[in-house]
């Protein structure tokens, strides 16, 4: 019993730590987050019914611009490597329901740098062929770059999306 209470307390503390770093953002607002300008806009609103209940469906867009002198880079090694931490900022819609497979958050991620790798091999007929294979060489977010993304949030009718933004870098 004591261990479960301690575990619950620790998880609550960690969740609160992530929540406290988040800043509220509203429609048309720009926020500076660690030298990055984050913009959030509502582009469309319509009323819908899901499971017999009324909801508002918002199409939203988000953008992040690197206004600092710092560039973010993840260079990949020559061995196979799986990279999952390419997010720059995350916008969470607190009151989104996620109904009809819609989003509850938008994660703006670094750009992908593609490199063409040339390789030679024999095809099925035995002919020697030279081919080009595009591979991911790195992920980057340079100074002055802007990254955009769109999402759809479904919220209870009469409410606007309650959105917070936090840095992932």
Terminal Cα separation, in Å?
A: 37 Å
Class from helix and strand fractions: mainly beta
Unreliable segments of 5+ consecutive residues: 13-19
SS strand fraction = over 45%
Q: Encode the helix/strand succession as letters.
A: HEEEEEEEEEEE
Please report the total strand number as a whole number: 11
How helical, in percent, are the residues? 10-25%
Q: Name the overall outline.
A: extended
Mean pLDDT: 85
Side by side, the strands of the main sheet go 1-11-6-7
Tally of helical runs: 1
Task: Indicate the radius of gyration in whole angstroms.
Answer: 22 Å
Q: Mind summarizing the main beta sheet?
A: 4 strands, antiparallel
Task: Offer a quick outline of the entry.
The chain has 1 helix and 11 strands.
């Amino acid at each position: 019993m004591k261990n479960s209470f301690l575990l619950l307390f620790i998880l609550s503390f960690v969740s609160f730590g992530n929540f406290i770093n988040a800043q509220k953002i509203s429609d048309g607002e720009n926020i500076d987050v660690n030298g990055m300008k984050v913009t959030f806009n509502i582009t469309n609103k319509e009323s819908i019914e899901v499971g017999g209940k009324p909801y508002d469906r918002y199409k939203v867009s988000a953008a992040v611009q690197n206004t600092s002198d710092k560039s973010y880079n993840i260079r990949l090694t020559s061995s196979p490597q799986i990279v999952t931490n390419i997010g720059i900022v995350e916008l969470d819609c607190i009151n989104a329901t996620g109904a009809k497979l819609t989003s509850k958050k938008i994660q703006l991620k670094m750009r992908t740098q593609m490199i063409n790798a040339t390789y030679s091999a024999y095809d099925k007929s035995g002919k020697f062929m030279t081919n080009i294979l595009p591979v991911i060489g790195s992920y980057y977010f340079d100074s002055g770059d802007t990254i955009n993304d769109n999402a759809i949030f479904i919220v209870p009718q009469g409410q606007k999306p309650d959105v917070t933004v936090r840095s992932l870098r």
